[in-house]
Structure formats: C-alpha cells, structure tokens
Amino acid sequence: MKAFILDRYSKKQALRLGDMPEPVPGPDDVLVEVEAAGLNQLDSKIRDGAFKPILPYKPPLVLGHDLAGTVVKVGANVRRFKPGDAVYARPRDGQIGTFAERIAVKEADLALKPANLSMAEAASIPLVGLTAWQVLIERAQIKPGQKVLIHAGSGGVGTFAIQLAKHLGATVATTASAANAAMVKELGADVVIDYRSQKFEEELSGYDVVLNSLDAATLEKSLKVLKTGGKLISISGPPDPAFARAQGLNVVLRFVVRLLSADIRRKAKRAGVGYSFLFMRADGRQLERITKLIEDGTIRPVMDRTFPFEKLNDAFAYIDTGRAKGKVVVTQR
Question: Tell me: the pLDDT tens digits for 258-287?
Fold first, then answer.
C-alpha cells in the first residue's frame, strides 16, 4: 500500500511517498481504509526527533495520529464494528500510521464517526478532542463556575478545549492574536488576551486551571494567574515523574525526566499550585462521548485547510508555520 514514510529523524524532514506492507489485523484489531487524516504538532515533534528518548519508534516509520475512514475487515474478537462502518480514531502509541492507505487499529481505540461530520471534519477531532477531554474532565475535573485559561486558543487543541470548557460551565480566558479574537469569542471564550500587546500574567488572576501548550517561558508565567490549589497542566512539557512511570521508562530515563521538570515542579510547589504533564492516550469510549457532543451541536470542528494526500509535505510545511487556525487535514477521497 502507499504511505508517507519517515526515513530518518531530522528537523522538518520531508516524508517519502512509497510502498509499505499491507497491515495485518490481529484478533482485536479493525482494518480501516483511511479517507482522511489530521496533522498534529505531535507528528512534527516525532519527525524532528524530539520524542526519541520516550517513544518507541525507529525509522523507517509511518506517522499520523488521527484518522477517519471505513472499516474493511475486523478481527475475530471484534464485536462493536463491522465492514462498511464509518469510524474515526486516534490510534494508540506503537500503532500509529494514519498517513497511509490503510491501518489496523485496536477496537478499543475506535468510535463510529459523528453522523453530521464529513470524513475530513471527523479526522480533525480525535487527538485534540481526547487531549482536551483528558485535561479538563479527567485531570482538572472542571466544575461549573471555575475559571480556566487555555493558551493558544486558535490552535487545534485550543479551539476544542474552549468549547468543552464552556460546556462544563467554566469561565474561559484564552491567548490569541487580535486577528483571531473574534473566532475564539465565537467558540465561547469570555476573555481574550492579545499575546502581542498584552501580558496575560498581568491581566488575569484567581484562575483554577491553566492548559498550557506553549513554551517554557509561558509555562512559568502561567503560575502567576493561578490561585492557591490551582492546577497547571501542560501538554507541551516538560514531562514529569508520573508520566515516566506510566510510560514504563527505565531508571535512567526516569531520572532524566525528573530533572527536566524539577524546576517547574519546585516553582509550582512554592506558588501553592500543582503541576502535571499530560500525554494523551487513545480511548474509543471517550470518543463516543465526544461524538454525542458533536452530534447535538455542543462542539463543532474548526478546520483551517485540507490538502490532498499526495501533498502531505505541503501540509506539514503549513502547520510548521504555526499559523493554522484549528486543524489541517489531508484527504484521500
């Protein structure tokens, strides 16, 4: 089958369109014909080699963490899906590879595609939707009336997280450019900080939760807006000891991870707030709950551009500019 292949780790390394073996589904797998695949910063970071120490991938490999498509075949133990079903997913780590014609996905990672979305729209959802869900609902346990700061509100995670936080009853602040202020307000943001002309750490205070997806400087400044007992949750690092344990990293890597996050954990403790790193996981049941929110109109996808499959490297070049509003998707149909 045709797939885009990463031959070596290198910053902004182009992917090669070539042939890969057909995936062979195991008893718990579903073989899916990929019709659309979303691009994520995670793909760029893996391509660049940023996650070499903590993710078990060795080139040549196929990237891609979001898909929407049609079930072709199911394994012997699969009960929830059948050939012809329209599905979407974020395949689990170790089983990624949606930049290909077909992929075998664990049944537990799949959900039926929202009926009111196109394949391209559905492919924009899984990774960012699950990330927002796991930050705001699982980790932060947002309650009505709480105050949440979501950085980079016009990005893929940000556009979804704003809508989910509003659904949960939170007051939402976000950082965005002035050009994107109207868009994030339409999604539900109550307060928009223009990061070019305003300092969010001086404008905001008394917040319960911050969702950080930006750099170390933004992470540290975010401590200033949290009230005592607040939660600083980062999806861009640095990873913390709890993540190292969950990943089953060896003693040396656990020590390295502890050192990487020691400074921010120390400063968070001094400020009376909690710091944690979240690396989202695949979860088909959570996707089913997200599907309900999409089908009832609570959350809508936000897409910037779609590219044809063969223009995947152009799509990567576009997301590497950092200017995408919402998600970028490649389509094969």
Answer: 999 999 999 999 999 999 999 999 999 999
* Domain 127-277 in the same topology as domain 2-125+301-331: no
Query: How many CA within 13 A on the CB side of residue 266?
Result: 6
Q: Which residues pair with 237 in a beta bridge?
A: none
pLDDT digits (tens, 9 = 90+) for 288-323: 999 999 999 999 999 999 999 999 999 999 999 988
The two tokens of residue 256 are 């390295």
In this structure, which topology does domain 2-125+301-331 adopt according to CATH?
Answer: Quinone Oxidoreductase; Chain A, domain 1 (3.90.180)
Residue 261's φ and ψ, nearest 5 degrees, are -100, 5
Contacts of 267 by beta carbon, 8 Å cutoff, 6+ apart? 220, 223
Position 55 confidence tier, pLDDT thresholds 50, 70, 90: confident
Give me 250's structure tokens.
């060896």
Q: Report domain 127-277's class.
A: alpha beta
Task: Break the chain into its structural domains and give their ranges.
Answer: 2-125+301-331, 127-277
Residue 275 backbone phi and psi in degrees, to 5: -115, 135
Give rounded-to-5 percent helix, strand, coil for the chain.
35, 25, 40
Q: Where are the alpha helices (DSSP H) in the chain?
A: 41-48, 119-123, 126-133, 156-167, 181-187, 200-203, 216-222, 241-247, 251-271, 284-295, 312-319
The C-alpha atoms of residue 285 and residue 89 are separated, in whole angstroms, by 10
Model pTM score: 0.97
Given a contact cutoff of 8 angstroms between Cβ atoms, the answer to whether 150 and 173 are in contact is yes
Please, which residues have CB within 8 angstroms of residue 3's CB and are 6 or more apart in sequence? 17, 18, 19, 20, 62, 97, 99, 100, 101
